[in-house]
Design a protein that fits this description.
This protein has about 70 residues and is of the alpha+beta class. The protein contains two helices and four strands; from the N terminus they run E-H-E-E-H-E. The protein has a four-stranded antiparallel sheet. The relative contact order is 0.33.
Length: about 70
């Protein structure tokens, strides 16, 4: 299992949480998605076959263009 974090400055409400969670969990291999409003981060637990680019694309599809992977 791999866990990645992403900074998403536009995250501000429950709608944001729902939209991002819906899009990212639709990726086969994603096990868990957590969106934190206070830190404006998205944490994704997934199998190896899921790429960072797939996760960023899903967050973009939810309507959030500013996405930065965190190390």
């Amino acid at each position: 299992m791999i866990t990645e974090r992403f900074q998403v400055p536009e995250v501000s409400c429950q709608h944001c949480i729902n939209a991002i969670t819906k899009e990212v969990t639709a990726i086969p291999g994603v096990q868990q998605v957590q969106v934190a409003l206070d830190s404006k981060t998205v944490t994704v637990a997934h199998v190896e076959q899921v790429s960072t680019a797939q996760i960023v694309a899903a967050i973009n599809e939810a309507g959030y263009d500013e996405v930065a992977p965190l190390t």
